[in-house]
């Protein structure tokens, strides 16, 4: 069965610090998709990135970067020069290609607090 | 570009009452998903539709829960005889096709007193 673990339940940093959110996943499928979503206090899940299992290239988007390593089943997310607006709960999620429904399995989330 | 919308945003009800939530997906998204999120946890899958067909239901979806998607457009989620354990955020997501990204609505927060 698929599983996503986000071991860090809460992280607190001071503005401008870099922070890395960890995500470890388990799946029996060889083709799968990994996601990161941001959930601000308003509650809506905001899509950040989608990665398929065949693409291990790291990705950078502005202050955000993602490190995908199949060897360690990890898909970590780094925010560089954090800002107060980055404060939110961040979820890592997995979808298996063999599953026709493509439903998402989420980790428990990491609450990031960025203090001014 | 209109995103996924959900109504109501908040619902407070007394135990034993029935409640119904509505989700309007992004136009032309043929897949629609319902998830439930309890406090401090990640969302958990409840059910999904492809067009008007409900194709899978989680074991979390007890007999008191029913979902519909008439005509493959909006969807409703009804909870009958609500219990305090039903208190949660109910999230709806929509997606184009089978291997794309799910986009979420703002959710409906249910409180059962």
Question: Can you give a write-up of this model?
Answer:
The complex is a heterodimer of chains A (116) and B (113). Chain A is mainly β and 116 residues long. Helix content of chain A is 0%, strand content 53%. Chain A contains no helices and 12 strands. Chain A is globular. The model of chain A has no long low-confidence stretch (mean pLDDT 94). In chain B, strand 4 and strand 5 form a beta hairpin. The mean pLDDT of chain B is 94.
Brief synopsis:
The complex is a heterodimer of chains A (116) and B (113). Chain A has 116 residues and is mainly β.
Helix and strand topology:
The complex is a heterodimer of chains A (116) and B (113).
Chain A: E1 3-5, E2 10-14, E3 19-21, E4 24-26, E5 32-39, E6 46-52, E7 59-61, E8 64-69, E9 74-79, E10 88-96, E11 105-106, E12 110-115
Parallel strand pairs in A: 2-12
Antiparallel strand pairs in A: 1-4, 3-9, 5-6, 5-10, 7-8, 8-9, 10-11, 10-12
Chain B: E1 5-7, E2 10-13, E3 19-24, E4 31-37, E5 44-50, E6 53-57, E7 65-68, E8 75-79, E9 88-95, E10 103-104, E11 108-112
Parallel strand pairs in B: 2-11
Antiparallel strand pairs in B: 1-3, 3-8, 4-5, 4-9, 5-6, 7-8, 9-10, 9-11
**Largest interchain contact:** A-B, 24 and 26 residues
Main sheet makeup of chain B: 7 strands, mixed
Shape of chain A: globular
Determine the oligomeric state from the structure: heterodimer
Largest beta-sheet characterization of chain A: 6 strands, mixed
Distance between the termini of chain B: 37 Å
Which H/E pattern describes the elements of chain A? EEEEEEEEEEEE
How many individual helices of chain A?
0
The value of Rg of chain A in angstroms is 14 Å
Number of helices of chain B: 0
Which consecutive residue ranges of chain B, at least 5 long each, have pLDDT under 50?
A: none
- Report the span from N to C terminus of chain A: 41 Å
Cα shape of chain B = globular
Q: Which structural class do the helices and strands of chain B define?
A: mainly beta
The stretches of 5 or more residues of chain A where confidence is low (pLDDT under 50) are none
């Amino acid at each position: 069965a698929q599983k996503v673990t986000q071991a860090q339940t809460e992280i607190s940093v001071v503005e401008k610090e870099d922070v890395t959110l960890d995500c470890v996943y388990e799946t029996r499928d060889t083709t799968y998709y990994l996601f990161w979503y941001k959930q601000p206090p308003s509650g809506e899940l905001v899509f950040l990135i989608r990665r398929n299992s065949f693409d291990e290239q790291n990705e950078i988007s502005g202050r955000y970067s993602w490190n995908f390593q199949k060897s360690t089943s990890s898909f970590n997310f780094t925010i560089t020069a954090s800002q107060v607006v980055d404060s939110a709960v961040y979820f890592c999620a997995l979808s298996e290609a063999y599953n026709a429904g493509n439903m998402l399995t989420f980790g428990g989330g990491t609450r990031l607090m960025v203090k001014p | 570009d209109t995103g996924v919308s959900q109504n109501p945003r908040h619902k407070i009800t007394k135990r034993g009452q029935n409640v119904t939530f509505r989700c309007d997906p992004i136009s032309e998204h043929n897949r629609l998903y319902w998830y439930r999120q309890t406090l401090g946890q990640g969302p958990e899958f409840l059910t999904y539709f492809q067009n008007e067909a409900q194709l899978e239901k989680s074991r979390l979806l007890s007999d008191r829960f029913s979902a519909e998607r008439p005509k493959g457009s909006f969807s409703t989620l009804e909870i009958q005889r609500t219990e305090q354990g039903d208190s949660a955020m109910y999230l709806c997501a929509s997606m184009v096709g089978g291997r794309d990204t799910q986009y979420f609505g703002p959710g409906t927060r249910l409180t059962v007193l």
